[in-house]
Amino acid sequence: MNVLISTEDIQRRVREMAQEIARDHPDGVHLVAVLKGAFVFLSDLARALPGSCSLDFMAVSSYGKSTSSSGQVQLLKDLDSGLENRPVVIVEDIVDTGLTLTYLQDILRARAPRSLKTACLLSKPSRRKVEVQVEYIGFTIEDKFVVGYGLDHAEKYRNLPYIAVLDA
Ligand code: IMP
Known about the structure:
By secondary structure, this protein is an alpha/beta fold. The protein has a single domain (2-143), classed as Rossmann fold (3-Layer(aba) Sandwich). The chain contains three helices and nine strands. It has helices spanning 7-24, 39-48, 99-109; strands at 2-5, 29-35, 53-61, 74-77, 87-95, 115-123, 136-140, 146-147, 163-165. Strands 4-3-2-5-6-7 form a six-stranded mixed sheet, sandwiched between helices. Strands 1-9-8 form a three-stranded antiparallel sheet. It is globular. The termini are close together. Bound molecules: inosinic acid (IMP). Inosinic acid (IMP) is lined by residues 37, 62-63, 69, 92-101, 145-147, 151.
C-alpha cells in the first residue's frame, strides 16, 4: 500500500481547517459527523477547535462493499437532536461523486439550521456527478481509491493513521 498523505501532513491540515472553522463560527459550532468514515477526522478536528462545539452523528451507506458509488444513499442513523437555528458544519471524510453530500445537505437544510457548511478531509473533483458546495476541503486528490484515517474498503483499514492508495 502506498502512503498518499502522511500522518504529519494530515495533522497539520486538520489544525488549519479547525482554525478556519472557528474563525467563521465565533459563537461556536455544531458538528454533524457522517459515520463511519468521518470518525477519525471528527475526533482530530474537534480537539483542534479553539471555540465551543457540540457534536452529533448520522450514518449513511452509499457503497456497500464496492469501490464505486451505486448512487443510492440510505439513511442508517439519524441525528439525536434538532438543528433549528444552529450553526452546523457537516464533517465528512471524502467527497467523490457528490451524491452522498448532496443528499445530506438537502435533508439537513430542511431542518432550518442558522447556517450550514461542509468540511471534507478529501475531495476527488474528477469523479463529481453533481456539483456540491464544500466550504472546507483538506486535500484534493486524484481518482484513486484511498483508505485509512477512517476510510475503509469492506470495513478494513479505517485504523491506519495515514491515507494510503489501495492496490487493486
Ligand atoms: P460520494 O457519494 O460518491 O461522494 O461518496 C461519498 C462516500 O463514498 C464517502 O463518504 C466514502 O464513505 C465513500 N468513498 C468515496 N471514495 C472513497 C475512497 O476513495 N475510499 C473510501 N471510501 C470512499
